[in-house]
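Forum: Protein Structure Q&A
Topic: Joint prediction for protein chains with partners

I've read a bunch of threads here and the consensus seems to be that you should model interacting components together rather than docking separate models afterwards. I'd like to see that in practice. Below is the full input, 531 residues plus whatever partners are listed. Could one of the regulars post the assembled result?
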Amino acid sequence: MKVTLVSRSGREVIKGGIELADGATVSDLQEAIHGRIKKYYPSRQRLTLPLQAGSQGKPIVLVPKSKLADYCDGNANNLTVLFKDLGIQVSYSTLFFWEYLGPLIIYPICYYFPVYKYFGYEGERVVYPVQTYALYYWCFHYFKRIMETFFIHRFSHATSPLSNVFRNCAYYWTFGTYIAYHVNHPLYTPVGDLQMKIGFTFGLICQISNLYCHLILRNLRSPSGNGGYQIPGGFLFNIVTCANYTTEIYQWLGFNIATQTIAGYVFLIVASLIMTNWALAKHRRLKKLFDGKEGRPRYPRRWVILPPFI
Amino acid sequence: MAGFLSALRRIYLSLYNWTVFIGWFQVLYFAVKALREGGPTTVYDAVEKPLQLAQTAAVLEILHGIVGLVRSPVSATLPQIGSRLFLVWGILWSIPETRTHVLVSSLVISWSITEIIRYSFFGMKEALGFAPSWLLWLRYSTFLILYPTGITSEVGLIYVALPFIKASEKYCIRMPNKWNFTFDYFYASIIALAIYVPGSPHMYGYMLGQRKKALSKSKTA
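Posted by a regular:
Agreed with the consensus. Here's the joint model:
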């Protein structure tokens, strides 16, 4: 069969199109494109069916494992496919590793090295126990995140655009510096002992719960990377859709209760807003997918991310 | 009911736009008058009150966007109004040493011409239902010059203010305190300056896009 590849402006991406066997898959098409244009490796290609003139709705994305013939609706020998270059891609593991590495390195630098002398604070500084525990807590948190990235998470997309590396690193590294600067400051004022213990204990429990949530999510996806969605269940997922985000937010709350900085609370609020956005989208998607019709289960009533508010 | 609310909206927006128009007209008038009579160092004192009123009133526009009274996206109005308020209150009012600088003249003239055109444009659309094509053209063309002159004046004045901000320690919150919070107005102003680097091309590009849309639409209309 012949595939005509066009860009959104109508221009032919590969002159004359591509000839493939009738039983070829989308993946074969992606390899063929990559063979003709070296820089377009498969994860950089976004292939969709052209939208019918005047029709609304989202375009149909070609799925790698499907047969090309499945997308032909009349003419079984000809298919027109819309091509979009997604730009340079990096693997999600790479993206997460770099964004988490910043906080993991910057925070100990503020704790161990005399950086505050460059801000005009000379002399020895007194280090309170809470500041030491905060260092351990923070570093454990980001170390855990890096480990989860390599050993636990199963990503729905293999890659992410390179521009996200800069954007995400700016976010994590800037906030990391902002918080580390204030918690390790020579003029830091610690909270009471009980408040510190409550904060760190609660935070630790939430971090462990968060890890358990990630394990549950991992087991929802098969290792062959079929993607797709399942209804999450078990543990906190029985009451809230994005229990992993819930535990993450509460874990930062624990850190802030123990360390009490405006910087930490600002980060908590911004992170919560970002995660709430994601959670609302995921919840909506699951409800739409599991609508109870045609034998599909119905998505049970659940909180989205932060019971009892949302 | 819907017709009544829509009429109410039109009356309110007409009143709002024409009132602020008058404010900016005063700014331009007093600025030019002061320039001719006393020179650039006297401009600020002549325009201070109408400038503060007209610019601060623009906060209402953020509200208008949020409640849906107007179509402008909050993401475009917020940085614009933010930088204006920072200049009017955070620099000119807070740091008096900047008031006699020649950039104050270019600042208020750039701003007032832009706003006179903008508010009369919206004022006409709300009150009369249309705006003349020459006003449309002005609205989407004068920014080509006035954005660069205005932005240069803004950046220049913030830069001029920096040493005075550092020396005065104004608006600074130091540690130790219960919430382990610090705020350094000097560093915050430097960050504000840094934001102009990506922010200015973004705003200019946005207006270029708006210009293309608005002027091509009027051609085919």
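The beta strands of chain A are 2-6, 18-19, 45-48, 78-85, 89-91, 159-161.
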